[in-house]
Task: inverse folding
């Protein structure tokens, strides 16, 4: 589910940052581009990570840095409770803003599957609030395999679609605002 997405993104970035910082310190002198480095996922599969340290400061995801991750049958509960494949490119825009581009980024479980293509901006509004805003259209192929017959659709979050998650007292409150188009239903709705 989406509960704790802000914490999941933060945990993933911290893990990747630590792995890349370790790789950087093993070099005699830092390079602007580190990797690609293939690392195993916690349970199975792997991810190949490349870090473009734009300012050559050795700090993963400081402003201007770009981290590219290519997932291959990656199962890692710290990232997602699903098998992941595809590519994700994270660019640090500021201390609290990231741009995330996804290409054929899939999350598969026995119950559902989802494939994402497009870009979003992640903004940490506070320590417990993450806002996600689409940059251009973001398409999401969805399959709910546990239903009979299985439900499939491709939904498109239109440019400017906003989702906000706030975590407090062990609960996550999600709010959305924007246009969503359904290929299956051939229409568009505004979610608020």
Result:
């Amino acid at each position: 589910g989406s509960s704790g997405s802000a914490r999941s993104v933060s945990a993933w970035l911290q893990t990747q940052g630590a792995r890349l910082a370790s790789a950087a310190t093993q070099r005699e002198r830092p390079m602007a581009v580190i990797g690609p480095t293939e690392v195993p996922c916690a349970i199975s599969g792997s991810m190949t990570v490349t870090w473009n340290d734009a300012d050559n400061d050795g700090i993963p995801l400081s402003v201007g840095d770009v981290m590219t991750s290519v997932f291959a049958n990656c199962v890692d509960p710290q990232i997602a409770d699903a098998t992941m494949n595809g590519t994700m490119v994270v660019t640090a825009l500021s201390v609290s803003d990231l741009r995330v581009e996804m290409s054929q980024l899939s999350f598969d479980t026995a119950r559902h599957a989802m494939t994402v293509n497009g870009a979003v901006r992640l903004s940490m509004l506070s320590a417990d609030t993450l806002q996600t805003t689409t940059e251009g259209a973001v398409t999401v192929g969805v399959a709910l395999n546990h239903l009979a017959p299985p439900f499939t659709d491709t939904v498109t979050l239109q440019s400017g679609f906003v989702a906000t998650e706030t975590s407090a007292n062990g609960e996550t409150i999600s709010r959305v605002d924007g246009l969503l188009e359904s290929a299956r239903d051939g229409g568009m709705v505004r979610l608020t």
